[in-house]
Every structure is written in structure tokens, then in C-alpha cells.
Design a protein that fits this description.
By secondary structure, the protein is an alpha+beta fold. The protein folds into 2 domains: 90 residues; 238 residues, Bira Bifunctional Protein, Domain 2 (BirA Bifunctional Protein, domain 2, 2-Layer Sandwich), CATH 3.30.930.10. The chain contains 12 helices and 9 strands. The strands form 2 sheets. A 7-stranded mixed beta sheet has the order 1-4-5-9-8-7-6, sandwiched between helices. A two-stranded antiparallel sheet has the order 2-3. The structure holds phenylalanine. The site of phenylalanine (PHE) has 11 residues, from strand 7, strand 8 and strand 9.
């Protein structure tokens, strides 16, 4: 019975997938079938009501179906990508003569590859684009206003010491703000808010700078990806949903997360989102410092003062923000035990990630 039902479900999925026209629709269809409220999750959740014999039969079929759906979606995403490339090639005026390619390549002994930070950034951008986010940019050289003041960290607030800052020596103009190298991508929050009216959602990836002593898990230059969503009646549940979707897309499996309270003056409440260590599966190893969890994503609900600094009425609108550490994510994904490798420029390191 249930076998037949699952089979019908798969046929239905296949025919719907056949009608899908673009990447976003394919991802939505996947979410519809495999999401929390989807039919497969429901079948797996109902397994507890079945007898052991029934479970032995239904379990593998349902899991197999889940995998098949994932693979089918992957194939269709690749097809859309190829179609886009072919379309742009067929419309392009400047065609490239590929007959030269082999002879040119023969001369290049050591061609480059994508750096893992860059690759993961692209991957995350894709996930957020499919969820309707814009990607925006901001300056590395910032002023105190955008780095601290507008983020609810006034001049003598002790939270300024949380982020050791590289200051520029030039004096601020009277009544003006001093300049610095941005210590986090949160600087883009206020710039982004002022440029648009709610509801909106954007991400802002980039380099950040801290005047810190380096060690295996600290660098003076590292990468963050800021995210901000402002809308009506946004809750912590929305925040968790977006973060879990992101992490399971990146790691290509369901990841277990936990929220702990965390203090950041620009969010209230603020959280540290940890994921269960993927290397030791929570048993404790050197990467998770034996605790089984890795701190990955500081986040929280945007503080009304910050919304106000962005000219947004905090009685009508609210939202969440997060600051994802890309270096740590790369370290988790590829089991790298020292952040300093990432910027070492050592070819033995970077060549391991060459994908072509
Ligand atoms: N900007 C914070 C940091 O670098 C991270 C953060 C971003 C925390 C957004 C909460 C919300 O430490």
C-alpha cells in the first residue's frame, strides 16, 4: 500500500519537475517535497506508528525516495545552468575562438583555481539569491558611525573593546567621525537600510579586519557574510529556518543546530548559533575543542535603535541579522585545523581545492 503511495508521490514529483522552468522553481519544488511539512517528512515521522516489519520495508523506500528527489533536483539545476550558458553564448556578439585554447593552455604550466573562501561565498550567495535576497557591498575603510555608533555602540561603550580595531591616524574633523578598517560586515546594515524601504532582505559578504594576535583560530583579516531581513512580524523561528536551510545546503545534509544567548549591542535578543561538529559528530575532537559543537553564526533580532538609525519605524517593522564567519565555515567543510593556512598563499594548500 504505502509502497504504491510512495511510488505515486515520486511520479507526481517527476511530472511537476518536468514543468519547472527555472532554478528558483526547482528549489521551491524540492522544499515542497522534502521540507518540514512535506509528505516525505510526514511519512518518516509516522514510522513510529508502524510495526517493526513495516518499518523495515517503508524506511529504506522513503529514504531512497528522498535521495532520488534530491538527485533529480540537482540534475535539473545543472540543466538550467547549462541552458543559461548556452543562451548567453548564442546571444553573445564576441564569440571566442576555442581552437586556440589547447595550444595556449599548453604554454600555461600552472593555471589557477578558485580559492575555497571564494567558492563557498559563491555557493552561499546562490542559496540566498534563491530565497529572494539581494547581494550588496560596502567599503573596507569605514567611519566610527557605521562601524559602531549606528549599531548601538556609543563612544564609551565597553562593547567597543570586543573588536580590536585598526584606526587611521588622521584626526577626525570637528564633530566628525574617525576612520577605521571595518571590524565586521555589520557596517553594511545601516547603509543597506538607508538605501531601501522595507520589506527587504540582503546579504553583504566581505573582508573584515581586527587588530588581534593570530593563532590557529584567529586572523587579522578574515571574511564575514552579513545578512539582514526586515519585514512585519518576523520571529526567531524565521531566523532559525533561514539559518538551517543555509547550513544544510552548504553541507549537503541536515545539520543539528543549537542557539545560545549571545551579546551583540545591535541585536536583542542576540544568539550564538552552534552546529554539531561534523567531523566527530558531536563526540569531541580538536576542531570543536572537545565540546562537540562549533560556534558558527552570531545572530539575533535587530535592535530598535539600529532600525531607527536606518530610518525605519521599529513599531511597524522588525527583522533579524546574522554575521556568518566564512573562514570557519571553510575550516568545518574541509577539516582545516588552522585558519592561518587560508591566507598563507601556500600553493600546496590552495592547490588542493582546484576544481579544474
Ligand atoms: N558583527 C558581529 C561580529 O562580527 C556578528 C553579528 C552580526 C552578530 C549580526 C549579530 C548579528 O561579531
Amino acid at each position: 500500500m504505502i509502497e504504491q503511495k510512495l511510488n505515486e508521490l515520486y511520479q507526481k514529483f517527476k511530472s511537476e519537475l518536468g514543468g519547472v522552468k527555472d532554478r528558483a522553481a526547482a528549489l521551491n519544488l524540492k522544499a515542497l517535497y522534502l521540507g518540514k511539512q512535506g509528505p516525505i517528512t510526514e511519512i518518516l515521522a509516522n514510522m513510529k506508528n508502524l510495526s517493526i516489519e513495516e518499518r523495515k520495508i517503508v524506511g529504506p523506500i522513503a529514504n531512497g525516495l528522498k535521495e532520488k528527489i534530491q538527485q533529480d533536483v540537482e540534475v535539473s539545476l545543472q540543466k538550467f545552468e547549462l541552458d543559461e550558458i548556452n543562451l548567453s553564448l548564442s546571444q553573445s556578439q564576441n564569440k571566442i575562438d576555442l581552437s586556440l585554447r589547447d595550444s595556449l593552455l599548453a604554454k600555461v604550466q600552472n593555471h589557477g583555481g578558485a580559492h575555497p573562501i571564494w567558492s563557498i561565498q559563491r555557493e552561499i550567495e546562490d542559496v540566498f539569491l534563491s530565497m529572494g535576497f539581494e547581494i550588496i557591498d560596502g567599503p573596507h575603510i569605514e567611519d566610527e558611525y557605521h562601524n559602531f555608533e549606528a549599531l548601538n555602540i556609543p563612544a564609551d561603550h565597553p562593547a567597543r573593546d570586543m573588536q580590536d580595531t585598526f584606526w587611521f591616524e588622521t584626526e577626525a574633523k570637528p564633530g566628525g567621525f574617525r576612520h577605521l578598517l571595518r571590524t565586521h560586515t555589520s557596517t553594511i546594515q545601516v547603509r543597506g537600510m538607508k538605501q531601501r524601504r522595507p520589506p527587504f532582505r540582503f546579504i553583504a559578504p566581505g573582508k573584515v579586519f581586527r587588530c588581534e594576535r593570530t593563532d590557529a583560530s584567529h586572523e587579522m583579516v578574515f571574511h564575514q557574510l552579513e545578512g539582514m531581513l526586515v519585514d512585519k512580524n518576523v520571529s526567531v523561528a524565521h531566523l532559525i529556518y533561514f539559518m538551517k536551510t543555509l547550513l544544510s545546503e552548504i553541507f549537503k545534509r541536515d545539520v543539528e543546530v543549537r542557539l545560545r544567548p549571545g551579546f551583540f549591542p545591535f541585536v536583542e535578543p542576540g544568539f550564538e548559533l552552534d552546529i554539531k561538529c561534523l567531523l566527530c559528530k558531536g563526540e569531541g575532537c580538536s576542531v570543536c575543542k572537545q565540546v562537540g559543537w562549533v560556534e558558527l553564526l552570531p545572530c539575533g533580532m535587530i535592535h530598535p535603535n539600529v532600525l531607527r538609525a536606518g530610518d525605519i519605524d521599529s513599531r511597524e517593522w522588525n527583522g533579524f541579522a546574522f554575521g556568518l564567519g566564512l573562514d570557519r565555515l571553510v575550516m568545518m567543510k574541509y577539516a582545516i585545523d588552522d585558519i592561518r593556512h587560508i591566507h598563507s598563499g601556500d600553493l600546496r594548500f590552495v592547490e588542493q581545492f582546484k576544481s579544474y
